[in-house]
Amino acid sequence: MKQFFSMDNKFFGIMTRIADLLILNFLFLICSMPLITVGASFTALYSVTLKMSTNDETYMFKGFMKAFKENFKASTIVWLIFIAIGLVLSVDFFFANLFSNLKISSILRVIFTGLVIIAFIMISYVFPLVAQFYNTTFNYIKNSFLMAICHLPQTLGIFIINTFPIICFLVGSYLLALGTVFYLFIGFSLSAFINSFIFNKVFANYK
Known about the structure:
- The protein is an all-alpha fold.
- Helix content is about 80%, strand content about 0%.
- The chain has nine helices and no strands.
- It has helices spanning about 10-30, 40-50, 60-70, 70-95, 100-130, 135-150, 150-160, 165-170, 175-205.
- The chain starts with 9 loop residues before the first helix and ends with a helix.
């Protein structure tokens, strides 16, 4: 009985980790509300979860806010660049649908879909990179592409985890409702935490 109530008990360890992730998810959502700060919020989130995944001692609120402030400029610049890329690709899709030639329209949509997937994979890498390394904006973006290509098995795992919200949106209203509740409470932090185990193995090759 004494062992059950011990702080070293696995049950308490799991409950503590869940509580940490709930706090992190809340911080991420609150700090992402202005939208322009989404990049800085993702960087701060990964700054904490990368440490959590290696059992490094870290404080949720203090660690998150410290990383948010320190990486705000770099993260926001990167975020705005990807927003611009997203807008350009959206316009491209719009004009691709205007072509009367269905064959040309289909080819263009396939090309732009491929570019969207590449951009999505890069953005999945870039904020953990900002959290882990000091570099220039150009190198963050370049390295996000190169690492994703060089570590395809890991990239596939990260891609599957990060596309889960999109799958919820596409499947139907019931799964969308469940997914929304899940991500409002713990989804973003849990995804980042799981991804962090993968990223730590990838980043170990560059330290």
